């Protein structure tokens, strides 16, 4: 039993020693720094956004009544492409103002028009009757007034002389007849005015019927290009609370707009007239130019993100850009010529302490002390870049200015053109060849400590090199 236990213990020690040796025998990882040189160059500060190309003037042609589409218009220059049939209005058709686009079945509306027209004629005839009645009652009224003023005596002159009696008056018309004649005349005058009003009412109905009949012919309100055709022959359009859309016409495709959605954090730097560049996926090698034409105030919120619509005017004289393409937009906020530039990745890099020169922490403390205060005070934000020194890196505190998508302006700091700033690092672990598991392990080689090559990291004016 004792021999068995001894063998087991001895085997365990051998296994532990073997795996310990394997883990310890691996060489230290080789560090490869990714670097870039500090350069002088032009910096363009921009705001990026995504937008959609839209025609500058877009007209939505609709229908104002209910009916079945019986005909589509014919293109003005259509030859029928050799088929002998006229080419109908379709997608991409060029139309002129007042050109026929479509017809809607006018059977009902023409009947209503004829009915209203007949009503006007009937009302005009009725007016003639009431005017004739007015003439008759006016004559009767004049006769009644004359009879009313006529005064007669009951005796002849000879009888009056012989009897010596006082004469008495005799009326030419009874009071009731007089009042009736007057009433008939006034009633006839009122009837004439009623007949005139009925005529006006029927004429208005006729005008409405004529207008509805005209709505059965859909004409183009502008000259332009058909962007979308939303109706077919035989389709019934129904107009209720809103007019159904039949055609979408772009007035002039030589003038396009980009409607860009800009984040609320960037909207403050945009101004009317600001230059803009943009690209589209359809022409990835072309760069298009425009200017900010409008900043709309009706912001939208999507998932707690507030965006504003900015309208960009663009000259599309060559008709290269098509409606509704997606545009990748850059607003050119500022352009700085020949400034000291470092890659943005260099400002984000943070090494582990083992990669720093021994006095790196002391330099950081010095940079935040009196040396930084004694130099110039440029406007900017403090940052740190790391300069490669052999297998180590040294921090340099700088003042950052403007930035774009790739580079940042350096306003101050002990850094100059040609310095290698570290962007990151890669590590490659290479295992040693194991030939004898019982041989003593090979100790890793120590990395020598570098000598300091720079003094304090206080802010100093940038030394620009042409």
Topology-level CATH name of the domain at 108-215? Helix Hairpins
Helix proportion of residues, in percent?
25-40%
Query: Could you describe the largest sheet, including whether it forms a barrel?
Result: 6 strands, antiparallel, barrel
Q: How do the SSEs run, as a string of H and E? A: HEEEEEEHEHEHEEEEEEEEEEHHHEEEE
Binned strand content: 25-35%
Q: In one word, what is the shape?
A: elongated
- Uncertain segments: 21-28, 364-377, 445-461
Report how far the terminal alpha carbons are from each other.
86 Å
How many individual β-strands? Answer: 22
CATH classification class of the domain at 108-215: Mainly Alpha
Note down, in words, how this protein is organized:
It contains seven helices and 22 strands. Among the domains are: 46-54 and 256-338, Elongation Factor Tu (Ef-tu), domain 3; 59-104 and 216-249, RNA polymerase II/Efflux pump adaptor protein, barrel-sandwich hybrid domain (OB fold (Dihydrolipoamide Acetyltransferase, E2P), Beta Barrel); 108-215, Orthogonal Bundle (Helix Hairpins), CATH 1.10.287. The longest helix is centred in the N-terminal third of the chain and has 43 residues, at 107-149. With 466 residues, it is of the alpha+beta class. β20 and β21 (407-413) form a beta hairpin. The two termini are 86 Å apart. α2 (107-149) packs antiparallel against α4 (175-215). The model is unreliable at 21-28, 364-377 and 445-461 (pLDDT under 50). It has a six-stranded antiparallel beta barrel with strand order 2-13-17-15-14-18. A four-stranded antiparallel beta sheet has the order 3-12-10-5, with no helix packed on it.
């Amino acid at each position: 039993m004792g021999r068995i236990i001894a063998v087991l213990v001895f085997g365990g020690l051998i296994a532990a020693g073997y795996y310990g040796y394997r883990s310890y025998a691996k060489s230290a990882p080789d560090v490869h720094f990714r670097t870039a040189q500090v350069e002088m160059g032009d910096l363009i500060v921009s705001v990026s956004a995504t937008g959609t190309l839209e025609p500058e003037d877009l007209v939505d042609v609709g229908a104002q009544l209910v009916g079945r589409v019986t005909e589509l218009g014919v293109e003005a220059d259509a030859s029928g492409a050799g088929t002998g049939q006229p080419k109908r209005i379709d997608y991409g058709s060029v139309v002129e103002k007042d050109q026929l686009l479509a017809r809607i079945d006018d059977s009902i509306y023409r009947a209503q028009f004829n009915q209203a027209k007949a009503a006007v004629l009937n009302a005009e005839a009725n007016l003639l009757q009431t005017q004739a009645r007015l003439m008759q009652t006016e004559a009767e009224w004049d006769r009644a007034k004359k009879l009313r003023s006529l005064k007669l005596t009951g005796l002849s002159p000879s009888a009056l002389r012989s009897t010596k009696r006082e004469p008495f008056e005799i009326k030419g018309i009874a009071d009731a007849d007089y009042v009736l004649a007057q009433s008939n005349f006034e009633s006839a005058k009122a009837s004439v005015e009623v007949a005139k009003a009925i005529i006006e009412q029927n004429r208005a109905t006729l005008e409405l019927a004529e207008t509805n009949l005209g709505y059965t012919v859909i004409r183009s309100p502008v000259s332009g290009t058909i962007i979308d055709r939303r109706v077919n022959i035989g389709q019934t359009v129904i107009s209720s609370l809103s007019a159904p859309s039949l055609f979408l016409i772009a007035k002039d495709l030589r003038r396009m707009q980009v409607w860009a959605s800009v984040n609320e954090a960037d909207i403050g730097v945009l101004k009317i007239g600001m230059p803009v560049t943009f690209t589209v996926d359809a022409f990835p090698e072309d760069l298009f130019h425009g200017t900010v034409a409008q900043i709309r105030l009706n912001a939208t919120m999507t998932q707690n993100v507030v965006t504003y619509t900015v309208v960009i005017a663009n000259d599309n004289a060559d008709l290269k850009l098509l409606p509704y393409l997606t545009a990748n937009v850059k607003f050119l906020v500022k352009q700085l010529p020949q400034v000291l530039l470092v890659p943005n990745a260099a400002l984000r890099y943070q090494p582990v302490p083992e990669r720093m020169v021994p006095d790196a922490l002391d330099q950081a403390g010095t940079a935040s002390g009196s040396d930084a205060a004694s130099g110039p005070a440029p406007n900017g934000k403090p940052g740190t870049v790391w300069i490669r020194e052999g297998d180590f890196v040294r921090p340099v505190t700088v003042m950052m200015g403007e930035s774009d998508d790739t580079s940042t302006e350096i306003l101050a700091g002990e850094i100059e053109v040609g310095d290698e700033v570290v962007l990151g690092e890669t590590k490659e672990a290479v295992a040693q060849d194991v030939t004898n598991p019982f041989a003593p392990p090979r100790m890793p080689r120590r990395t020598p400590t570098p000598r300091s090559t720079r003094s304090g990291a206080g802010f100093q004016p940038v030394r620009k090199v042409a």
